[in-house]
Amino acid sequence: MELTQSLQCLQPSYIREILAVAGDPNTISLAGGLPAEQSFPMPIFQSIMSQLANDSSLFQYGPTQGYAPLLDYCDQHFSLSPTDQSLVTTGSQQGLDLIARAYLNPSDGIVMEAPSYLGAVQVFELAQARIIQVDQTSDGPDLTQLEQCFAQHSPKLFYAVPDFHNPTGVCWSLAVRKQVAQLCRRYDVVLIEDAPYRELRFAGEMLPMVSELCPEQAIVLRSFSKYASPGIRLGVITGESHYIHPLITLKQASDLHSSLPMQALLLGLLTHDHFPQHLQAIRALYESRYKILASAIAEYLPDSCSAWPIEGGMFLWLILPTCDVNTLAKTLLKNGVAVVPSSVFYPAHMEGSYSALRLNFTNAEPEALVKAVSRMASALAGEV
């Protein structure tokens, strides 16, 4: 049976593929966006799970929109307005898929930062959308390009990760957030604000979400994978009801509803007395690992390599002298280090403007981070 044209054009995820290869115990993986397993709140989970077994209703079919107590928590915690609605999804990746299927016809325009999150690129390519890229600066998208893009191409959506961007780690400045909100309003473009890393700030000042500055023009994706655990596969979409209601209908046709026991488990964690300390511990762990990686880069790598400083999240963006980053990534893998080359974070028909590597620092032990950079230095000496 012949595949659809859109699926035939879709490339497998480089990151998912390399994670399988990087399973070799002699390979240090800085490739996937994996949280540290020791950060998972297992003692809290254990106490909650023993209570869940006493509620058989959690193991029945449930409402598509989500577990009512968890939805109430989201309404309060995210300070949603009376006209807003929440939808619990099977990871925020499902949220992206629902948005694409609900709002993007083939050739509809969607703006993305360049580079951009691979999972979003795949979703929008599968929807056969017309992806328009805007260069990223050290504090957010190039605003001149963005306005020109809005004016000339009349896109429907602007997808962005303003807090600790994947893959670059960039956090938009307050000035950029305000101007992007104004542009979305002026040109009637809906912002898709993806916020999976917002809770992982370990330095600097918490900034308002862009969606808070243009709530009538925004849909927000949130993930619980990065500070609860990826295995529970839960996220939430929020926005004005007229944006969210069609997504609920789509989810009915997709998987009926996300796991009720996992939603109850997540709520138990979020409302647990020790949850604030859990978040603080994750932030402290990731800050220490980031500093170790950044220090090792400064010590071992040549001055021609530079890393953008970050204040949170899971990734460091290592900018290299011009080179074939795909060949370099293969060489590094042979040398026992798995990384993701910058070329992966652009649509298939577009090319990156510079050579870089995305390095994940959250899932490797400190000694492994230093060893990985040492191995990278050896490989780089022969490649760039």
UniProtKB/TrEMBL annotation:
Cofactor(s) essential for the protein: pyridoxal 5'-phosphate
CDD domains named among the record's database cross-references: AAT_like
EC category: transferase
EC number: 2.6.1.39
GO MF terms held by the record: 2-aminoadipate transaminase activity; pyridoxal phosphate binding
TM annotation in the entry: none
Protein name as catalogued: 2-aminoadipate transaminase
Classification of source organism: Bacteria, Pseudomonadati, Pseudomonadota, Gammaproteobacteria, Oceanospirillales
Gene label: lysN
